[in-house]
Specification:
It is built from ten helices and 14 strands. It has 304 residues and is α/β, with parallel strands linked by helices. An eight-stranded mixed β-sheet has the order 4-1-9-10-11-12-13-14, with helices on both faces. 47% of the residues are buried. It binds adenosine-5'-diphosphate and sodium ion.
Length: 304
């Protein structure tokens, strides 16, 4: 079985509790409403690519525990191939504990756990598999050495690489000329380029600086202002679709996943960006991360 897209990245379980108010240190609040959700940028992007109609494999690391099993089952529900996922016997599955108060504010503590245990040896052992993909999608919620090893094993292959430089962290991977598509938001672009992005002119300037750091194409996402795209043939702006935004969680992840699917299915960059904007627009009209990730038919309906 061939998988045109392999996502290399993080997967978490979000433990969410809605409370009247946050407890003070040492205090217990007992009015909580509990729910569990699946997250992690890697898993979100894999689900987004699969729902957009792509055949997707996932390479990541979970704990050898019930949460890890639940993550794998959840990915399989979207038809994602999970055999490349390693189970760490020493680290628990990545968990985020999220408290949400009555005002809708949140308080989050995350434990990356097994996500930090993804090794370059594991990437190496899947080198042949990765090279058979048309595109590898990767972000920065896994160790820097795992990201850089992925660039390295793909050095002499024709596999395209989409690198989403997110989140910003101290141990950030180096940008590589092997990156086909660098996806960043305004904050990440400012961090990498030194240009504060407020206008389209500044977006263009930042994207050009980033292209000089190696990547062949730069996709700078601008929230409700769409995307600035810088290619070897020049730059262009793709507008966002006008929607009523209620929760922008995972918008960037949906953009990356949908773009990967459209591109590997042969759409030229203008069309793939437009498709990805439509998928991300639907995502922001709904609550939550993975439940808000749209299916291909919904995106096509919006584009009609
Ligand atoms: P991130 O979530 O990584 O910060 P952005 O906020 O830039 O990324 O959003 C990614 C993409 O999602 C945007 O390029 C745009 O296409 C879409 N998007 C985000 N916010 C909105 C919005 N309010 N209305 C329509 N589309 C949006
Ligand atoms: Na996001």
């Amino acid at each position: 079985m061939e998988f045109p897209i392999t996502v290399v990245g993080s997967a978490n379980v979000d433990m969410i509790m809605q409370v009247e108010r946050f407890p003070a240190p040492g205090e217990t609040v007992s009015d909580g409403q509990f729910s569990q959700a699946f997250g992690g940028k890697g898993a979100n992007q894999a689900v987004a690519a699969a729902r957009a109609g792509g055949r997707v494999a996932f390479l990541g690391c979970v704990g050898a525990d019930a949460f890890g099993e639940a993550i794998l089952e959840n990915l399989r529900r979207d038809g994602i191939f999970t055999e490349p996922v390693v189970k760490s016997v020493s680290e628990p599955t990545g968990i985020a504990m999220i408290l949400i108060n009555k005002q809708g504010e949140n308080c989050i503590a995350a434990a990356p756990g097994a996500n930090n245990a993804l090794t370059s040896a594991h990437i190496e052992s899947y080198a042949a598999f990765l090279k058979r993909s048309r595109m590898v999608v990767i972000q920065a919620e896994i160790p820097r050495i795992a990201v850089e090893k992925t660039f390295e094993v793909l050095a002499d292959s024709e596999t395209a690489i989409l690198f989403n430089f997110a989140p910003i962290r101290k141990e950030a991977p180096k940008l590589s000329p092997r990156i086909t598509y660098l996806v960043v938001n305004e904050t990440e672009a400012a961090y990498l380029s030194g240009v504060q992005v407020g206008t389209f002119r500044e977006a263009e300037q930042a994207a050009r600086i980033l292209r000089r750091q190696g990547p062949q194409n730069v996709l700078l996402t601008l929230g409700a202002n769409g995307v600035w795209v810088e290619t070897p043939q020049g730059g262009f702006h793709a507008p966002a679709l006008p929607v009523q935004a209620i929760d922008t969680t995972a918008a960037g992840d949906v953009f990356c996943g949908a773009f990967a699917t459209a591109t590997t299915q042969g759409q030229p960059i203008h069309e793939a960006v437009h498709f990805a904007c439509a998928a991300a627009a639907l995502c922001v009209t709904r609550l939550g991360a993975q439940p808000s990730i749209p299916y291909r038919e919904e995106v096509e309906t919006l584009l009609k």
